[in-house]
Design a protein that fits this description.
The chain is mainly alpha-helical.
């Protein structure tokens, strides 16, 4: 119970403030859109850029961590697609959008603050290693499969062009690539620039959590409830269980093991809805899954934290 009070509830209280502020009309929906654009398009990319530029890549990018997490993510993506197709008889484009909901954990808005509150800022090395690969891997996989399904018979060059355009217009991917470029170059960020980035970075997570609450009130729990339940089950229980089993088998260090399991246990991020909206597929299922899984993750994240102790 103490873990729930000290670690999880403060994060969801910030989300709740955003939800209630929009619900009661204290904060306008248009304002939430602006806060979300700031956090998603500027502050979080700055956070990722600064963190990856300074991270010790040799110590952080443990292959066992990335194999455990992303093997689990890919399996869950496949389970979501196959479940939507063969259990609920959705068409293939819908199946890919639903599979993406099972693939894309909310690694930044939920994974980072919950891990930091549970284990301290020094325990975020594994989180940043996962986040550095998260958007490129998930969007790369999701867009590639969706474009393949939508354009059967399309030339390989056209497929690569469509995937590349979608990837490199994503601010998170741009921030990650910029951070890697600085890290590999050995160039030290000038202190005046670093201080400016730090000011923006301090606002990233609180603003994003508040905006997430404001966005969630716009999502209505509509659509196929069985499909939504499947997404919640895969995202909140199956993915972290796979990471747990693989991390144990690969003998992951404790701090990386905790980061991998907790990040895998997070609800689908709103990028799941963005992906569904981008293609106009399974939008109600995606929106409802983000809302319901985010609420349910209060208890499931507590469960995983308790198990990890």
């Amino acid at each position: 119970m103490q873990t729930l009070l000290d670690v999880i509830l403060p994060v969801f209280l910030v989300i709740g403030f955003g939800y209630v502020a929009v619900w009661r009309g204290v904060f306008p929906v248009a304002g939430i859109d602006g806060v979300m654009r700031f956090s998603q398009g500027f502050a979080i990319p700055c956070l990722l850029f600064q963190s990856i530029a300074k991270i010790d890549l040799s110590a952080s990018f443990d292959p066992a961590l990335l194999i455990s997490f992303y093997t689990g993510a890919a399996i869950c993506f496949a389970l979501g697609i196959l479940g939507a197709r063969f259990l609920f008889n959705r068409d293939w484009e819908d199946c890919v959008a639903i599979g993406f909901c099972c693939l894309f954990s909310n690694s930044v808005l939920l994974g980072l603050p919950i891990t930091e509150r549970a284990y301290g800022s020094d325990a975020l090395t594994g989180n940043f290693a996962i986040i550095a690969m998260h958007s490129p891997f998930c969007y790369g996989l999701g867009i590639t499969v969706m474009e393949f399904v939508r354009n059967r018979g399309q030339s390989g060059l056209s497929l690569v062009r469509n995937v590349g355009n979608a990837m490199f217009h994503n601010p998170l991917v741009i921030g990650i690539i910029g951070g890697f470029m600085v890290n590999f170059s050995g160039f030290a960020i000038p202190s005046v620039i670093d201080d400016g980035l730090s000011l923006i970075v301090r606002a990233a997570l609180p603003a994003a959590l508040f905006a997430l609450g404001g966005v969630l009130i716009q999502y209505k729990p509509e659509g196929d409830l069985k499909a939504i339940a499947m997404v919640c089950l895969i995202a909140l229980l199956v993915h972290p269980a796979i990471v747990w089993m693989m991390g144990t088998r690969l003998d992951l260090p404790q701090d990386l093991f905790r980061s991998g399991v907790l990040t895998a246990a997070m609800a689908p991020g709103f990028n799941a809805y963005i992906f569904a909206n981008m293609y106009g597929r399974a939008r109600r299922v995606a929106a409802s899954s983000v809302l319901i899984a985010t609420v349910a993750s209060v208890l499931t994240a507590w469960m995983w934290l308790t198990i990890l102790q």
